[in-house]
Design goal:
Elements (H helix, E strand, L loop, with lengths): L5 E5 L3 H13 L3 E5 L2 H10 L4 E5 L7 H10 L5 E6 L4 H9 L2 E6 L4 H15 L30 H15 L4 H8 L3 H13 L5
Parallel strand pairs: 1-2, 1-3, 3-4, 4-5
Helix pairs in contact: 1-6, 6-7, 7-8
């Protein structure tokens, strides 16, 4: 495994974990997933990770509280905060915790890739001391056209994944919902949205 490519994702939403799993694999990273800070702490007790991607709003201990704890334990993994809210107070704390980037959902895959590249470079020692994090509040609405790099948004990755799983199950929405980890009702809602966008007949 290449140095700087081992990522621990701490995220409680199944659909976001699924999107990140697909995106990280495409970007050449190896990912381990934990739904809570407590599960992430157990993973870190077993081995170290190059990069942490942390959701702020987790059940139980929150992302910043978790990061403060592991920093006190001597964890030197590079950290990227991914959250649904542009929390300025959390951003200030993130600076003191040497966070690489602070991304708000939905973030573009381009923004995520830039943050991961910066984190990997830091981990490999290519960036000297004194370089603080770039606080990137990506508040673009989901219907913004794909970035010029052609990677599009995390929402588009989710759309592709849902449609692929549905096709895998020959249109069986109940089976697809089970694999996706969402309710059938939520899947119907998503498919109605895709139909409006012309992604479904």
């Amino acid at each position: 495994m290449l140095a700087g490519n081992d990522v621990l994702v701490v995220e409680d939403e199944v659909r976001v974990r699924t999107m990140l799993a697909s995106a990280l694999k495409e970007m050449g990273f190896t990912a381990t997933f934990a739904p809570t800070a407590e599960a992430a702490a157990k993973a870190l007790a077993q081995r170290s990770f190059d990069i942490l991607i942390l959701d702020l709003n987790l059940p139980g201990k929150g992302g910043i509280e978790f990061l403060e704890h592991v920093r006190r334990q001597g964890c030197d993994s590079q950290a990227i905060i991914l959250t649904g809210f542009g929390d300025l107070d959390a951003a200030r704390k993130a600076i003191h915790l040497e966070v690489v980037d602070f991304l708000t959902k939905p973030c573009t895959l381009g923004a995520l890739e830039v943050a991961l590249s910066r984190a990997r470079n830091r981990r490999r020692g290519r960036i000297g001391e004194g370089h603080g994090p770039t606080l990137h509040f990506d508040l673009a609405p989901p219907n913004v056209p794909p970035a010029s790099n052609g990677k599009g948004s995390m929402e588009e990755v989710e759309q592709r994944h849902i449609l692929d799983v549905l096709e895998k199950h020959d249109g069986n929405r109940a089976a697809a919902a089970v694999e996706l980890g969402i309710s059938v009702r939520k899947l119907y809602y998503r498919l109605e949205e895709y139909q409006k966008k012309g992604l479904l007949p």
